[in-house]
Amino acid sequence: MRRTDFAVPRSSAVPDHALSGEVLAQYQVVRHETEQLCEPLAIEDYGIQAMPDVSPPKWHLAHTSWFFETFLLTPYLPGYQVFHPRFGYLFNSYYQTVGSFFPRSQRGLLSRPTVEEVYRYRTHVDGAMAELLANTNDSRRDQIMFRTVLGLHHEQQHQELLLTDIKYNFAFNPLRPAYRPAPEPVGKPPVLMQWLGYDGGLREIGFSGPGFAYDNETPRHKVFLEDFQLASRLVTNGEFLAFIEDGGYRRADLWLSDGWAALQQRDWQAPLYWEKPDGEWWTLSLAGLRRLDLSEPVCHVSFYEADAYARWCGKRLPSEAEWEVAAQDCEPRGNLREAGFLQPVAAEDGARNGPVQLFGDVWEWTQSSYRPYPGFQPLSGSLGEYNGKFMCNQMVLRGGSCVTPQSHIAATYRNFFYPADRWQFMGIRLAGDAD
After folding, report:
1. C-alpha angle with apex 59: 371 to 384, nearest 5 degrees?
2. Which of 59, 82, 223, 424 is the 20 to 30 A CA-CA neighbour of 321?
């Protein structure tokens, strides 16, 4: 299922009951997938929060239910009774306009509600959502359907965060537990990096047309680009290791000032999850600790590390407009969550047909600050807090990762993180100016 299929049909010819049935089926699939992702967990794993940016798995399970309860069931289902009067305080993430919320950094301190109660909460919300969608046939239909699909994409974002946070929580444990076994990628030699040229001029980026998009992907607008080059594949572990061995983490001349300060404060010496217990490099995956594969894309690096590496190479990171122009005619396929690896894998040789690894494997840092597009209008009401208020001090990433659902990603998707963040599946694609 592609992202363009995972959306509310816009045609007025679609009967109410058919539309409701389609969206309800999508709802049930996504909600079940979230719970499937939690099946490998022990009960003790559900409440762990190893750092403030990570949330416990049971919080993700409850928060995604709170979203439907708050933005759909309470306003649109007559007679709906909230599951628990204090859950709105515990599981609101950051929506100031719907009330106060429990501090993010303290989510892991709560033993209650129990995991069992959180699952009962999900069942309660699911039953009410089925009732709402089965009886939506009035003027509120379009708004209910839009909010439901938005809620499903929101839950898919949390599916990705769930896996990302589990990996960080497990890595914090000296026992180095594995989340679940995963297929071993076939060992491959590194694919030659080629430089693909793109014409500049007046181009268009941003979402336009039928289907779902987040508000921050709109409106479609014109940008002017100089001719540019884009690397045919992602930077590998072996290539980044050469940067380390050349003193990359000790050379202040390669680093932005804030990056150099972060490096010293946090004692960065390698990407997150790299370690050297026996003189050889190992890395932690969701399947456990394993030897570093030099052909795989480097992962779990900050924007500062990506930028320093690009400087070391005499290159740069692409702008988000350059990345999107290169990706516009590419199918959003690749090593996404459905592939089952839950880990970046080595590139296939396909540069003759365009760049590879644009979708999946790792989110690709760009040099672009997360800012509103010209003419941007956030969603009305409380849902306007979803994206717009974060458009400051963060950097844009593109392309999805090995834990991103296939039906969630698109060429126009704008992810964003602070430049020092590393725990998400983040990597590097180089760019350069035309010769």
Report:
1. 30
2. 424
165 in a structural domain: yes
The Cβ of residue 297 has, within 10 Å, a number of other Cβ atoms equal to 29
CATH number at residue 78: 1.20.120
Side-chain-side CA neighbours of residue 286 (13 Å): 27
**Total number of domains in the chain:** 2
CA atoms within 13 A on the CB side of 405: 23
What's the pTM value of the predicted model, to 2 decimals? Answer: 0.95
User: What CA–CA distance (Å, rounded) separates 240 from 122?
Assistant: 43
| Claim to verify: residue 239 and residue 302 sit in the same structural domain | yes
In the chain, % helix, strand, coil (3-state, to 5) comes to 40, 10, 45
Place of tokens 């709560």: 110
d(C-alpha 175, C-alpha 403), whole Å: 23
190 inside domain: no
Q: Residue 323 and residue 114: Cα distance in Å, rounded?
A: 44
∠ CA 72-13-130 to the nearest 5 degrees?
A: 30
Give residue 401's domain range: 195-433
Rounded distance, CA 119 to CA 167, Å?
22
Here the tokens at position 197 are 């040229």
* Beta-sheet strand order (sheet of 288-291): 274-275, 282-285, 288-291
Q: Are strands 334-335 and 359-360 parallel, antiparallel or unpaired?
A: parallel
Give the largest Cα separation in the chain, rounded: 67
Q: Do the Cβ atoms of 144 and 250 come closer than 8 Å?
A: no
Rounded CA-CA distance 280/432 in Å is 33
Tell whether the torsion through CA atoms of 182, 188, 189 and 192 is positive or negative: negative
Q: Are residues 305 and 165 in the same domain?
A: no
Verify that 165 and 221 share a domain, yes or no: no
- Distance set, CA 60 to CA 73, 112, 363 (Å): 19, 14, 21
- How many other C-beta atoms lie within 10 A of the C-beta of residue 395? 24
Residue 306 lies in a domain: yes
Between the alpha carbon of residue 9 and those of residues 4, 72, 145, the distances in Å are 10, 19, 9
The answer to whether the peptide bond before residue 113 is cis (omega within 30 degrees of 0) is yes
Cβ(228)–Cβ(322) under 8 Å? yes
What are the tens digits of pLDDT across the range 268-304?
999 999 999 989 999 999 999 999 999 999 999 999 9
Segment 27-72, tens digit of pLDDT:
999 999 999 999 999 999 999 999 999 999 999 999 999 999 999 9
> What tokens does 90 get?
């515990």
